Amino acid sequence: MTRIVSAILILLAAGTSAFAGDWPQFLGPDRNGVSTETGLINVWPESGPEIVWRRPLGVGMSGIAVVGGTAWTLFQDDTTQYVVALNAKSGEERWKTAVAPTYKNSMGNGPRATPTVGDDQVFAFTGEGILVCLNRQTGRQIWSVDTRKEWGGRDAEYGMACSPLISGEFVVVTVGMPDATVAAFERKSGKVAWTSGKGSPAGYSSPALLTLNGKNQLVVFHGAGVLSLTPETGTPLWNYEYPTDYNCNIATPIAVENEVFISSGENHGSALLSVPETSTGDVTETWTSFGPQSVFRNEWQTALLIDGNLYGFDNVGSAGPVTNLNCVNAKTGELRWRQRRFGKGNAIAADGKLWCTTMDGELVIVQATPNKFVELSRAPLFGETRQAPSLANGLLYVRDNAEMVCVKIRE
Fold first, then answer.
1. How far is CA 373 from CA 275, 326, 345, 379, in A?
2. Is 66 within 8 Å of 397 (Cβ atoms)?
3. In the chain, N or C terminus with fewer CB closer than 10 Å?
4. What residues have CB less than 8 Å from 344, skipping those under 6 apart?
5. Residue of 152, 98, 150, 156 whose CA lies nearest to 127
6. Mean pLDDT by 10 residues, the chain (411 residues)
7. In the chain, where the domains are located
């Protein structure tokens, strides 16, 4: 009996470690862009980043999910949007499933949202707002819901960009329809489980599950503000109005202990919100920094919280080309340092470093220290991209509108 128990424990430990480095959704395991992986390199080799594989792909702004040796993303060709599954170590295609017609938009063509993987399911949200559920192993479509037809609305002006969020037995997306700001669907059937909010535009952010004051909350940054809901029923807990030009609330809300940090570009700024412990309480502002002199104007990049400091991109002006890289004390809003004109890009954090992509096609490693800006290494690698990389088991995955690249970053 002892041997059997020991064997079971070993198998369980092996199963856990096999998935410990996965990146199952937008912004990683905790949807905050921060990985627990360690032992990563500090500088690129003299010959440049070690490329494991490159694979031609199609147009799209979708990020990459990686689970159990498979990587998923969305892209489109001249006629169709697809979800594709690739061998994470070789780039070889495992399956490809058509999910919607091609999507065109003046701000860039193709799907925007990142797939989400849970159990034997893959969830994807297309550019026009079709939510699909596929079998993880085969790519077979299990169900599909056109959220525009479901509630009689229209997709967001710049395309639907919400990455699906798994919450228990539900999958949740921000739809921004007249009679449903947020919607939860049963994972098995695709039936609507609940809706919440009315009349608010979708915006372009993805919801997050945050633990605040000891309570699990579904926090949604829609086009006109922040809405907190009970994950099980969609019952509103608190609300904070935060309108921006063109409904461009894009970054994902993150928890700073029991408070919520939000930020927007278009010269809007940032706020740290102290949320009520009961549904009858009011949201108060711990600090705000608005307007052209704001310490943070995250456009389509979510700031990264590391040891009490926020690191991220500060977009200058109204969607202009000038972007700084900043470090800000999360609890006070104090600017720790600012690297001016760092360039537009995106980033994740791991092993005490920021792993940044730039729209010029570079991979940049920056030390995550509040003392001063320290760039460790920089190398050109790909074409223009808005997506942050994904990190799984020592491999960094990046894509642009032409191809997907896998880079080894573990010693």
1. 32, 9, 16, 18
2. yes
3. N
4. 299, 313, 315, 321, 323, 358, 359
5. 156
6. 38 37 96 97 95 96 97 97 98 98 93 97 98 98 96 92 97 96 98 95 97 95 96 95 92 97 94 88 94 92 97 86 94 97 95 96 97 97 92 97 95 82
7. 24-35+62-342
At a CB cut-off of 8 Å and minimum separation 6, what does 231 contact? 167, 168, 170, 172, 209, 216, 217, 218
CA-nearest of 369, 221, 212 to 304 is 369
For the question of whether the overall pTM of this predicted structure is more than 0.90, the answer is yes
Cβ neighbours of 222 (radius 10 Å): 24
For residue 60, the one-letter residue type is G
Q: Residue 350 corresponds to which tokens in the numbers above?
A: 């791991």
Contact status, residue 184 vs residue 194, Cβ threshold 8 Å: yes
CB within 8 Å of 199: residues ≥ 6 apart? 178, 181
Question: Which residue is associated with the tokens 């947020």?
Answer: 182
Continuous segment of H or E residues that includes residue 76: strand 70-76
Are residues 82 and 127 in contact, defined by beta-carbon separation less than 8 angstroms?
Answer: no
Amino acid sitting at position 319? A
Answer yes or no: CATH 2.130.10.10 is held by domain 24-35+62-342. Answer: yes
